[in-house]
Amino acid sequence: MTLERAGEPAQPNIADAGPMEVRAKIQLAMNDLRRLSDIVAIAIARRDGLIIAHDLPRDVDPKRTAAMTAAIVGTSEMAARELGHGKFLQAIVDSEFGKMLSTGAGEEALLVTLVRPEANMGLVLLGVERAAHRIATILAGE
Question: What is residue 141's predicted lDDT score, i.e. its pLDDT?
Fold first, then answer.
């Protein structure tokens, strides 16, 4: 599968984001991050592997994506702890047709970002870091 961006950002599917105000804020945060041209798709998952919101392509199962992300992050957190590298910040899966960034978004959530293979990673990482902080704040009710 090649990661392609189909025009303007899709309307996010917000499965379990809580009250309408929270849903609207999450949608806005996703749309703002999606404005970066190197970002193909976004998902927000709970750390236990349940999907909160996404704008993944139709051929990508959001439930499986959330579950895989939780597993990747769980293993990465354990590795960071065991190696004495401090707190987990982010896991990057670099593959033939793109990258998948899994970033902590507070105590309860993960931000999953699918990125083009030729992406300007400095710009992407800056945008993802800001979005993760924003999503953490929204979900914490601040």
Answer: 86
